[in-house]
Amino acid sequence: MAFELPDLPYAHDALADLGMSKETMEYHHDIHHKAYVDNGNKLIAGTEWEGKSIEDIVKGTYNAGAVAQSGIFNNASQHWNHTQFWEMMGPQDGMPGEVEKALTEAFGSVDKFKEEFAAAGAGQFGSGWAWLVKDTDGSLKVTKTENGVNPLCFGQTALLGCDVWEHSYYIDFRNKRPAYLSNFLDKLVNWENVASRM
Ligand code: MN3
């Protein structure tokens, strides 16, 4: 099935008061994400990947250790990443007890989790993502990945992801990636969605 750009799960200006402006959403969703969808569809047409699920395409085209991943991988993974990212944000009602408990058990406290996640995102050199994942042994871990690489590549479940490509924060935070990350963790995360992924 061809890739399709999903609608945002909220209005373009829904997160503006929380630190992600309408302008960022218009560029990030309507232009950047759409480009991954369109380019992915062009590259996949006529190949063995046509008609395959996006998860199969991401896992099947990931080439561990490759400096530059294939065009199909890059576009498919970024389409998947952004689809998750939109769902992982939203006006929030606080953190469900089960998430607080799991983070406290794994990291010592919610604040310690946030410190580790923010450090991973700030420490990713160049473009990439910071993640909270459920690893193959069931444990929760914070990871960072370059470019479009994501937890699917390692058999992990993505519980939370933050896009640290400059296009995600430059309009609202300019070069201040750490400020973007702390705002993301404190105001933008839809913890109900994180709970549903656990
Ligand atoms: Mn992005």
Describe the structure concisely for a colleague.
By secondary structure, the protein is mainly α. The protein contains eight helices and three strands. 51% of the residues lie in helices and 11% in strands.
Secondary-structure-based class equals mainly alpha
Overall geometric form? globular
Distance between the termini: 27 Å
Count the beta strands.
3
Individual helix count: 8
Radius of gyration over all CA atoms, rounded? 16 Å
Q: How would you sum up the major sheet? A: 3 strands, antiparallel
Report the average pLDDT across residues.
96
Order of helices and strands: HHHHHEEEHHH
Bound molecules: manganese (III) ion
The percent range for helix content is 40-55%
Q: What percentage of the residues does DSSP assign to strands (E)?
A: 5-15%
The low-pLDDT segments are: none
Query: Could you give the order of strands across the largest sheet?
Result: 2-1-3
Summarize the topology:
Blueprint: H1 22-44, H2 54-61, H3 71-87, H4 97-107, H5 110-123, E1 128-134, E2 140-146, E3 157-163, H6 166-173, H7 177-188, H8 191-197
Antiparallel strand pairs: 1-2, 1-3
Name the features:
198 residues; 51% helix; globular; binds manganese (III) ion
